[in-house]
Amino acid sequence: MQISPAEVAETLAMVSQQNLDIRTITLGLNLRGCTHEDVDTVAAKAYDRMARAAERLVPTADQLEREYGIPIVNKRIAVTPIAEVAAATTASDLSPIARAMDRAAQAVGVDFVGGFSALVQKGASHADERLMSSIPEALATTDKVCASVNLGSTRAGINMDAALRMAHVIRRCAELTADRDCIGAGKLVVFCNAVEDNPFMAGAFHGSGEADEVINVGVSGPGVVRAVLADLPEDANLTQVAEAIKATAFKITRAGELMAREAAQRLGYAQGILDLSLAPTPAEGDSVAQILEAIGVGTCGGPGTTAALALLNDAVKKGGVMASSSVGGLSGAFIPVSEDAGMIRAAECGALSLEKLEAMTCVCSVGLDMIAVPGDTSVETLLGIIADECAIGMINNKTTAVRIIPAIGKQPGERLNFGGLLGYAPVMPVNAHAGSVFARRGGRIPAPLNSLKN
């Protein structure tokens, strides 16, 4: 499909007035050629590969930003899950690889690098075990590295042994970075049904079915959608609301398609997916919560919120797939508490609870994202939250995730401040009635009947 000058002009108006941006250009890199039995050799080879391949990523993105006038907020790298790359190493600590990834990110000027990851939905290899054990040290000693672990899938069920282990890892990440508002846990996400072409952090990694180098782009535009809904008459019915969102999502996706096409062509890499996710920022007006309130919900978290979010998520996807044949990743609406000014206000006034957020994850793009909980939250409670969210993803054949941050030394009503796109997170109360027996049974929750599709 050709992109007309009129579409470009309309997009520029969205940029100047409604906070439209390209949230990220993410370079996916295959690191499987970096394997070696010595961990330091793996680290050196990973650094060289990343530094060479991403050398022109930031300059190219900056040039596109100047030419088209559309902000590109983040430039990122996602690599092959490091547990796979490090399978031949004999070292128990894989954090030297993470530090090499961090140095490479610094050298080429990207904002984040993802892929310190393992996929353990059906079982964990020795390399997976070492990777999970290395995550706290890796995230505590790096600035830009993000980690993820896939704990379950509709096909495999949920690996509850790994889920309990990751509950301990999350708490340890928070403890090791308590002097930095527990940011280590903010760079770690656990998944069910993780996708292999996600350009968003902290869950981005480069999947096994991808080319050696791929450009994936994530577009964001909650401010644009909110502005369109604000112009609708109050008596517009919900079908009209959905149609307005679809039309807006189409226009936003067209802007992303242009930037993805140009970036891939100029870098000489394969064009991957275009992820149309309404990813909010702490900026006023750039909020998914405020979209839900513009649809008619009194305050985000109140009755009707889940239904409004379902309408929004579906309309965004329908509009996006008409604008590009490469829509993928997650695509829909994110509901990260710390990154959304409206979500923060709703949580602080008590309208938005952890339980309501869990219900909303049944119909949104991902799951419980950037949620701060009291520092004394037990491992059993963390495990229960993770298991509940994985179960939603497994049964509904969708991606769900948990990025939860135990706020060490803090209680409900206090805050963790991260700055930048990560914003600040009010510490939310949790239901503390988790059972220790359930948490420690282990084993695997079997795959559901709807996994049998052949």
From TrEMBL:
One Pfam family of this protein, by short name? Answer: DUF711
* CDD domains attached to this UniProt entry: RNR_PFL_like_DUF711
**Coiled-coil residues:** none
Domain of life according to the entry: Bacteria
Q: How does it assemble?
A: Homodimer.
**NCBIfam families, A to Z:** PRK05313.1
Q: HAMAP family from the entry?
A: UPF0210
Protein name in UniProt: UPF0210 protein HLV38_03685
The scientific name of the source species is Berryella wangjianweii
